[in-house]
Structures are given as structure tokens and as C-alpha cells.
């Protein structure tokens, strides 16, 4: 069995929260692995010599690389109507659109798009939070990005690159009917989560009156107030796995993310960097608003 809907992005745009909220709906089955990344796999059909790319060489175990393993993620589907997964790498993957079209041509696609400048900064803070970013200055990290891309480092560090939404989405609109694609803005999801979810439920042909618990906020980013606490949070995975049978998933998530979120602070982005990035994205934003038929003029301010 294959999914009949995919959340394709964008990174740092609420997709983890969306995954958990959709998972609560009795008519929706979500992959037990949030991000299988199967359709973006660089090893499918030997399209890329992955071991030559340093980041991939060390992280291939995080990808579902064959169709049988991917189908196994959905083997426990019972009578659910909507079957899905959420791999944000699909949005900017060179391979994903055509592979998705080949395997599941009638799939429904969902994307949440965040102001690209805010998304880039949140992405940077995420890397800082998890102790993966060694450059503590956002401007210097942006300056280092082209070299990192060239060196085959993790896409986690491609802060600016991942914000050219029109560049990536146009391929999906070329391959799939517009009726198969639903685009939401992050600010709508943040400010009116139930309204956004109801729209998604209608799109997926499930009960749109269902109201999930949206009190837990997932993957909040920022600089750790206490690095020792943050290090303990990062190393707590074995503990969380040990208590898995003892506590309901929603309670586990609430406790974990509450502790993490309360240990974070978000410094303001430099106004100069913000203006610089807005100009970088300007043409893409103007093209995007025509593509998705939404006014995005507030993204240019």
C-alpha cells in the first residue's frame, strides 16, 4: 500500500505540528516515521553515487531507500480514508516530483509556506538549538552557505536555498492538477489552526468537524538559555523510548516539548539582513503569489 497524500514542506513551517495534529484524526493514518524521504532518496535507481557526498554517506540510514520498505510503513492501515506522511525534503528535492508522479499519480499534496526570511532564520536557530551549527552568527552562516552546498554538507545548513518556493513548487504544478495541491501559509496555520485543519480535512475527504488538540507546539527554535539542559534534552531519546509504554504519546510529547520550549530564547534578526534577504527572494515571491493565487505583498515588507 502507498499513501494517498503527502505533506511536502516547507521546512520550519509547522509540518511537525501538522503531522501530529493529523495523526489524531480517526480517519487519517500517518506513517509511524514522520519523514521517510523515500521519493527524495538519492540512491533510488542509482541516480546519485551517494557515498561520494559526505553528508549522505553518514546519514543514509535515515532514509527509506526501497519501495518494499516504504510500503511497509503503511501495512497497519485498517479502514482509514486518508493515508499520508510528511517529508519536507520533497519540496526542494530535484528527484521527488517525478518519482511521486510515477508511483502515486493521483496523490494529494499539501504544503505550508512560511515567510522565506523567517523560515531561514528559524532554520538557523534550529541548527543552533540542536548543537549542529558551529557558526553562531546568522550572517556568517549565510555567507558560508554556497561553500557548504558545494562541499555536500547537510541541507540543514542550506538556510537561504530552501526558501525559493516558486522555483520548487512550479514543478509540482506542472506535473499534477491544481486540484491535487493545497497550499497554506504558516501565519494562517499559527493564528487559526482549527480553520486551517478543517480545510485540510475537507481536502482529504475526512470529517472536517473533528477538532484535534493543538496545544502542543512542536520544534520551536531558539538559542538555549541553559546549554546543559539543552544537551540533556538532546541526549534524552533513550529515556523517552524507555517510558514509551508507560505514558500516552500526547503526554510524552507535551512534557518533552514544554521543557525544551521553555529553555529557548529567540534573539531578533538584524534588520539589515532581513532587508537583504527580502531582496534576494523578491522575484521568487512575486512569481509564487501568481502560482498559488495568494497575495504575498506582506512578505516584501
UniProtKB/TrEMBL annotation:
Key words of the record: Transferase
Listed Pfam families: Sulfotransfer_3 (PF13469)
Superkingdom of origin: Bacteria
Keyword field contains Transferase: yes
InterPro entries listed in its UniProt record: NST/OST, P-loop_NTPase
A GO term for molecular function: sulfotransferase activity
Keyword Transferase: yes
SUPFAM superfamilies cross-referenced by the UniProt entry: P-loop containing nucleoside triphosphate hydrolases (SSF52540)
Record's protein name: Sulfotransferase
UniProt organism field: Aphanothece hegewaldii CCALA 016
Amino acid at each position: 500500500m502507498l499513501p494517498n497524500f503527502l505533506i511536502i514542506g516547507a521546512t520550519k513551517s509547522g509540518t511537525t505540528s501538522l503531522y501530529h495534529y493529523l495523526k489524531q484524526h480517526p480517519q487519517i493514518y500517518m506513517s509511524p516515521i514522520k519523514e521517510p524521504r523515500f521519493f527524495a532518496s538519492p540512491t533510488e535507481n542509482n541516480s546519485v553515487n551517494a557515498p561520494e557526498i559526505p553528508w549522505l554517506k553518514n546519514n543514509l540510514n535515515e532514509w527509506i531507500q526501497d519501495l518494499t520498505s516504504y510500503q511497509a510503513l503503511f501495512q497497519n492501515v485498517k479502514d482509514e480514508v486518508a493515508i499520508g506522511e510528511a517529508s519536507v525534503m520533497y519540496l526542494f528535492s530535484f528527484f521527488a516530483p517525478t518519482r511521486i508522479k510515477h508511483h502515486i499519480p493521483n496523490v494529494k499534496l499539501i504544503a505550508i509556506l512560511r515567510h522565506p526570511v523567517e523560515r531561514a532564520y528559524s532554520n538557523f536557530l534550529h541548527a543552533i538549538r540542536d548543537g549542529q551549527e558551529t557558526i553562531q552568527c546568522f550572517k556568517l552562516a549565510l555567507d558560508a552557505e554556497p561553500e557548504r552546498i558545494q562541499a555536500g554538507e547537510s541541507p540543514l545548513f542550506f538556510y537561504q536555498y530552501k526558501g525559493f518556493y516558486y522555483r520548487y513548487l512550479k514543478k509540482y504544478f506542472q506535473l499534477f492538477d491544481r486540484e491535487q495541491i493545497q497550499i497554506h501559509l504558516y501565519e494562517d496555520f499559527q493564528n487559526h489552526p482549527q480553520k486551517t485543519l478543517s480545510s485540510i480535512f475537507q481536502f482529504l475527504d475526512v470529517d472536517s468537524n473533528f477538532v484535534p488538540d493543538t496545544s502542543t507546539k512542536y520544534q520551536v527554535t531558539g538559542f538555549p538559555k541553559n546549554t546543559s539542559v539543552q544537551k540533556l534534552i538532546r541526549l534524552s531519546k533513550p529515556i523517552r523510548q524507555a517510558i514509551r509504554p508507560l505514558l500516552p504519546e500526547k503526554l510524552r510529547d507535551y512534557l518533552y516539548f514544554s521543557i525544551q520550549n521553555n529553555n529557548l530564547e529567540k534573539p531578533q534578526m538584524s534588520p539589515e539582513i532581513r532587508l537583504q534577504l527580502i531582496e534576494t527572494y523578491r522575484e521568487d515571491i512575486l512569481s509564487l503569489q501568481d502560482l498559488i493565487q495568494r497575495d504575498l505583498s506582506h512578505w516584501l515588507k
